[in-house]
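re: that chain from earlier
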Amino acid sequence: MKQTLKSSNYIILYVVLAAFIAIIALFIGAGNAFSSQNEQQIKPPEAIFNSSVDVINHKGQKIPFPSLDFMDMSDEIVSSDSFKGQYRLINIWASWCGPCLVEIPSLFDLEEELGAEKLDVVFVSFDFPENADGLRTLMLRHNKKIFDSLYTKGDDVWGALSVQALPMSYLVNPQGNIDYIYVGEVQWNSPEIVAHFKSIISNSQ
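^ sequence. v structure.
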């Protein structure tokens, strides 16, 4: 009888211990799941873009976009000072740059998805043409549909913008400061990248 009672006590002890271990495991699993979910929510912008894209984060550093004069497709001067007032994505491209031509359609998609009043995509050609007709000719030569783009006649702008490679894009905030620089070809209309820009814009309002 005593042996049976002793065995019963051991069984109860084992059951309680097993239940205790199961509860601890449950809490650890829930903690890991929460941690994983939190990591996804705070994923840095650098993790959104593929490894071939260099993302330079200047957000909060108040680095102004340089004051420069560009030319538009009517051969009129456009100052970069006019970029202030809303978010603008300044895309530096050239008609001879294959990756530039590949990403341009997705830039149009990004602007359409967000609305030009929230994110205005500004193209700046680094073909250094003599005039707008020269740029149009270069576009057609590379089988590119004509679209509105600014251009510059001199390579002094290259140094002013510290251009590392093409394509290269600058996210300029409404105060005229550079938030991010993206170096390399980007699929701008991918869901994660669209969400990246939506988050930046919504958090600024």
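Residues 48-203 form a domain with the Glutaredoxin fold (CATH 3.40.30.10).
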